[in-house]
Amino acid sequence: MEFLHAADLHIDSPLRGLDRYEGAPVERLRNATRAALERLVDAALAQGVDFVLLAGDIFDRDWQDFHTGLFFREQMVRLHRGGIPVFMILGNHDAQGVITRQLPWPENVTVFSSRRPQTHRLDPLQVAIHGRSFPDRAVEEDWVPTYPDPVPGYFNIGLLHTSLGGRPGHDRYAPTDAATLAARGYDYWALGHVHAREVVRRDPWIVFPGNLQGRHANETGPKGCERVRVTPAGVEVEPLELDEVRWHRLRVELDGMEDIVPLGRAVTRALAAALPPGDERLHAVRVTLAGAGEGLHQLEARVPGTLEAQVRAAAQDLNGMDVWIERVDWLRASPVDRAVAAARDDAVGELVRQVDTLLADPEAARALVEAQLRELHQRLPAEADPGLLDTLQDPEGLRALLLDAEATVRARLEDGEEGRG
């Protein structure tokens, strides 16, 4: 017996601001969640699995129109024609009380009730699947003790959308723990809600498959579902990579580097080492540059954007790879002796002292930068850099932003002093 376990498809999850990234592959990024579902269906049909489990958050939010539901239904029809049943629960994003538009699902799709846990049997396979859907966005109680007893002699599976005792970046819904799950007596717990793959336990199997498709630079690495085989020898679980777009974070060390030629080479080498050769996916990469010599500092200060352009040029030089540089950050250690600069009795000294004050209080720095942006743009974030708000929430990104601004202003001040000399 064999089945696929997926969760957190977040079909048609909105990716705002992409059209403001020059050269961004907008359509491919926006269609990535759909393409990943198509790959899931392709895999199920090709491997002839016995059924598919979907552990919640199939949809990201209430449908804007019926196109989202019709697309999902079309994929379920493909499975129906292949004789593959689908068992699904609703999570916090697509809870019973969230999705207002309705479509009749094909006969092969079973959606578990949100009122109480249910059991569905596949008698020819001797499989019993137990689960419950979210009635609303938030479920604060542990549902596991209310799940039905295991069916004797059957392979028992529990479907649950939960963060267990809590996971970073995820609301604590349907809280429980591995011991409580194991005590229920099921053979496999098909979990959803957490977007990073995690095998919590192997006896019994308790598995988060992660989300089917990464949606931004905080959801990096391979994404997909679990392929589960049940044989007389035991249970085998392996991940299937199904993502259409793969997100990466890449750090490139530039310590001592003085000009852009070695910078480009270093970035090309780092990209080539980090990305799987010959992979046809789109690879979206957020690059962080760390360090650099005085020459690069001065060049970037006088011509802002030089380093980012070099990173993007290096990505273009990769053969046979589809790479999009989503953002470039620079965490530079200033070559300037800050203590000496701060002691200067001039505009440069005042500038460095003000930046040091902000660096010591990130919350005050964030508030100041946001206030300045609102004053300049009026309609933040509609007219701002689409990646800038993310930067403000990232302590390292905020530090880099402040040091970039300081270097640009300092270079202009010092150029002015040279001109006057």
UniProtKB/TrEMBL annotation:
Residues 1-196 form the Calcineurin-like phosphoesterase domain. Signal peptide: none annotated. Keywords: Exonuclease, Hydrolase, Nuclease. It comes from the Bacteria. Pfam families: Metallophos (PF00149). The keyword Ribonucleoprotein does not apply. The keyword Signal does not apply. InterPro entries: Calcineurin-like_PHP, DNA_Repair-Maintenance_Comp, Metallo-depent_PP-like, Mre11_N, Pesterase_YhaO. Coiled coil: none annotated. GO terms for molecular function: exonuclease activity. This is DNA repair exonuclease SbcCD nuclease subunit. It comes from Ectothiorhodospira mobilis. The lineage of its organism: Bacteria, Pseudomonadati, Pseudomonadota, Gammaproteobacteria, Chromatiales.
